[in-house]
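Hey team,

Sharing the DUF1003 domain-containing protein run so nobody has to redo it. Sequence (230 residues) first:
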Amino acid sequence: METSHISKKEILPGEEIQCKDIRTGILSLLKSDFPDMYNDDYISIDELNQYRRLYLTSLVVQERGELAIIDEDVITAIRNNSILSEDIQEELEAQLTVGQKLADSVARFGGSWIFIITFFSFILVWMIANIIVLSRQPFDPFPFILLNLLLSCLAAIQAPIIMMSQNRQEQKDRIRGEHDYKINLKAELEIKLLSEKIDHLLIHQSKKLLEIQEVQTDYLEDVLKELKKK
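Structure output:
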């Protein structure tokens, strides 16, 4: 009769199990409790069944733990990354110089209805003042040479200011485009990372479930053997 390495008791004939015939996962669990166990040692079928149950329990606990770890990794990966989808308008405004702010203000005013109404009102008042009010001694008689000079100077100054503002707008659009590209790239990488983790999780779960089924099959086979003996 063989002696159990665990209980140090004799094993009934037909109930001895040699360690080399035990599955790797269960054998590793046995060796963790009994480091001096070798493949030539024997244990009883009851002891094997006990460690089978412990191994199945550890697989389930390990599976739940891995699920929680993956969830935490995903949440941590998202939280640790800086938020890119934020309003960059304040950052752009903070980087402007006084001249650029003035150019934007002038261009904004020059492209409004307030400027158009004010401009035509000024021209109308100028013409009425020189034709009617100051008809005897007008400071700018018809054909309003001084007014044409002022309008030419205004156009000469306004054109480069508007071009400067347009360049600023193009720069803003370029920065916004780069910002949108970073957001899209970040989203694409995160989706790819999540997809890889989900694939890994599904494959890992399938392996765990298959291993659990194999252990359960061995357990049922031993039970059937015992029933046949009885």
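The chain has two domains: 16-80, 89-203.

Ping me if you want the raw files.
A.
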